[in-house]
Write a structure and sequence with these properties.
Blueprint (H helix, E strand, L loop, with lengths): L1 E5 L2 E4 L2 H15 L7 H10 E7 L5 E12 L4 H20 L2 E13 L14 H4 L12 H17 L1
Parallel strand pairs: 4-5
Antiparallel strand pairs: 1-2, 3-4
Helix pairs in contact: 1-2, 1-3
Length: 157
């Protein structure tokens, strides 16, 4: 697509370049690594652009994003921020005017939860064992540490 004529010649920016700028901007907005192939693949299927030339010769870009959002996030706020990011990046890198950024939220997802840590309870038969008077019950790890300390003392003597 012809972009601009200068004294030195023509400047052309392909539609693929404009699309790549929008895709990269979308990936950055999501805070993913743009070099990650999974993120790029998903973004390519999510972001689309349309270049339009007006009667007066000006060229504009329309961006369409079909995406998903994490449950609990304010959809209007999220979509507005995404619109601003895509518009600003495409305009500043290409010099083209972005006429429209349409965001369509098509799905809501939940972050996978980390499994809850369940503390193991002492089996009842061990807890019910009688203790000798004045003797503390120690864990096997504590017993090993005590043995190591006793060995150190013997070596020092």
């Amino acid at each position: 697509m012809d972009f601009e004529e200068t004294d030195l010649g023509r400047i052309e920016i392909s539609e693929a370049v404009i699309r790549d700028i929008a895709i990269h901007s979308y990936i950055e907005f999501l805070k993913f690594d743009p070099r990650e192939s999974k993120a790029r693949k998903e973004a390519k299927s999510t972001v689309d652009i349309d270049l339009d030339e007006k009667v007066d010769g000006t060229k504009t870009v329309k961006i369409t994003v079909n995406t998903k959002i994490k449950y609990g996030v304010s959809i209007p706020s999220y979509a507005r921020k995404m619109q601003e990011k895509l518009k600003n990046d495409v305009e500043s890198f290409s010099g083209l005017k972005v006429e429209d950024v349409s965001i369509s939220i098509e799905d809501v997802y939940e972050e996978p939860q980390k499994p809850a840590i369940i503390e193991e309870e002492e089996p009842e038969h061990e807890a019910a064992l009688p203790q000798e008077a004045g003797q503390a019950v120690e864990s096997p790890i504590a017993e090993v540490e005590i043995e190591k300390e006793e060995e150190k003392k013997e070596k020092e003597v």
